[in-house]
Amino acid sequence: MSNSTTIFEVDNVPDPTDFPSTDVAPGLRELDEALRCSICGELFQAPLTVSCGHCFCSLCIRTQLAVKAECPLCRQSTSEFYLRKAQTVEDAVKAWNIARPYILQLCREEERRKAPVTPPLVDEGIEFRSPKKRKRSSTPDDEVVEIPKPTSSKNAQRSGLSPTPASGSSTPQVVPCPVCQRQVSYSIINQHLDQGCKSTSDFETGSSSSGSKGKQKQDWRKLFSAGEGSTSSGNKGKGKLKTKAKVDDDASPIPKVAYHTLKEKRLREMLADHDLPNNGDKDTLIKRHERWALLYNANLDRTPTDRLTLEDLRRELKKWETERQTKRQAVTDLNAYQKANKAAFNQLVEAARPKKPPTKLPQSDSPMSLNEVEEVPGSSSLTALSSPAPDPTVIVVDEE
Amino acid sequence: MAVSSRRLQKELTEIKTAGTPCGITLLKADDFQTWFLSLEVLGESQYKGEVFALMFRFDPQYPISAPAVQFVVDDKYKAPLHPHVYSNGHICASILGGEWSPVLSVIAVCITLQSMLASCKEKKRPPDNDRYVAHAPDNPKKTRFVYHESDSAAAP
């Protein structure tokens, strides 16, 4: 896994705090939060709902349900059987993936625009609004936009974030766009911003609304077609080009396998069927196939156009396995480790002996050995998964 | 970047921008394997004026697998005297074992432990403290605790 330097290399993990706080940009953090899986913290990837209605990434919830058959959020018992595709959520995330960088940019621009305004306040305010309008709008909210005092700067920022046409519609005037700095009619500044500052001259001069509507439609169409064709570009590079072979629409999920009933040879065949490496001991083979089934089935939960290629999935699997192996090294070195530390172990045994009769079972390193040791389902398999290196004291007891 | 690291990075950002709840401070988080936080029970409680340190250890399966959490016991910090806390710092709390949920976070664990201490009525060690501490594994996750509904320790 990561070492101590990693944390400084990665300052760029997106999360809701990228957006300004609620008093500056109401709802944006919450929106970003709401579209994130509460297990991995990423924007939903192939979201699924559980029977209680909570939503998670396909891979996250499938992995978790294999450990414990309950909703991680409300602990209602559930199972893979109840997972349903959350298509609407997926569409929302897809759109948000595109809108997010744009809105972040707007927020930054807004911040930059606000920053110089605060100290030399009056001048900038005049540029934006005519004296006439300033007199007219004497409500406190409008006032703070023009004369932002330190005490009410929050309000100023909020009302400034969305300059509504209503507040200045009666007197059309030209203002510099906060994003592209071009001169744009104040009444159409919103449309101008919505279109990513791409509006042409007829827009900037504020021509007939019918013309702008037609243009809007065109732009929407462009947006949508772009969304269908190459959403992947905005999708953190997870999506692939159309030219690459994706998993078919009608591909069926890999069914559950009762691994303990299978011979090692059969396992190797099953892995070979999917063009996966089939080396390693039986445990490795099982773990590999399990993980492959998870990755494969989670990929099927994506919209067909967004699916990863099998090549990508194989790469993911390999990455996962390497991660596990670094952890597993402790196990492979076990014998050498045992020999090297024999003296220390013996010392521990001596230290332990007076208090512990040798008749005890190896597992009695549990603190509650007087109680009936209850197998907590999941926790044991978890431990096996995450920490394969057995505890030294157990090994010593084994030796005895 | 691994899922566990990304998730921890997000938690760290959250801590740094939104801050930590009262009585909880981040002491050290230089990597994605071990973090230290300090814990204090504010207000009236058995632990008034005492400050404890928690050590979190994460594995690559985090947050699917629970972090290994224990109180730091060294020259500076001691484990709180509590019926669910062993003198070596190991904690018998269900959410650190079978009741762990991947939606929980480092801060959520801290808050739970804070309230565990706050609700303590009698400062004492678990009844089997000596025996457990003599044989306890280094990593508390390798211990199979038996959880009891009552807060009156894990007595048989």
From TrEMBL, chain A:
Q: Where is the RING-type domain?
A: 37-75
| UniProt entry tagged with the keyword Zinc-finger | yes
Residues in SAP domain copies: 259-293
Protein keywords = DNA damage, DNA repair, DNA-binding, Metal-binding, Nucleus, Transferase, Ubl conjugation pathway, Zinc, Zinc-finger
The protein's location, in the record's own words, is: Nucleus
User: Which Pfam families does the entry mention?
Assistant: zf-C3HC4_2 (PF13923)
Catalytic activity, EC: 2.3.2.27
Which residue intervals define the domain UBZ4-type in the entry?
Answer: 174-202
SMART domains found in the cross-reference section? RING, ZnF_Rad18
The cross-references to InterPro entries, in alphabetical order and at most eight, read: Rad18, Rad18_fungi, Rad18_UBZ4, SAP_dom, Znf_RING, Znf_RING/FYVE/PHD, Znf_RING_CS
UniProt-annotated stretches for the region Disordered:
122-174, 197-249, 348-400
Task: Report the principal subcellular site.
Answer: nucleus
Quote the pathway field: Protein modification; protein ubiquitination
The lineage's top-level taxon is Eukaryota
Q: Where is the composition biased (Low complexity)?
A: 379-388
Q: Where is the composition biased (Polar residues)?
A: 150-171
- Reactions performed catalytically: S-ubiquitinyl-[E2 ubiquitin-conjugating enzyme]-L-cysteine + [acceptor protein]-L-lysine = [E2 ubiquitin-conjugating enzyme]-L-cysteine + N(6)-ubiquitinyl-[acceptor protein]-L-lysine
What protein family is recorded? Answer: Belongs to the RAD18 family.
Task: Please identify the protein, giving its name as recorded.
Answer: Postreplication repair E3 ubiquitin-protein ligase RAD18
Q: Provide the species name.
A: Somion occarium
From TrEMBL, chain B:
According to the UniProt entry, the coiled-coil residues are: none
Per UniProt, the keywords (alphabetical) are: Ubl conjugation pathway
UniProt-listed InterPro entries: Ub_conjugating_enzyme (IPR050113), UBC (IPR000608), UBQ-conjugating_enzyme/RWD (IPR016135)
Q: Which organism is it from?
A: Somion occarium
Ranges for the region named Disordered are: 123-156
The annotated regions of Basic and acidic residues compositional bias extend over: 125-156
Q: Residue limits of the UBC core domain? A: 3-155
Put simply, this protein is called: UBC core domain-containing protein
One Pfam match, by short name? UQ_con
Which region is the signal sequence? none
Q: Which domain of life is it from?
A: Eukaryota
Question: Which CDD domains does the entry mention?
Answer: UBCc_UBE2W
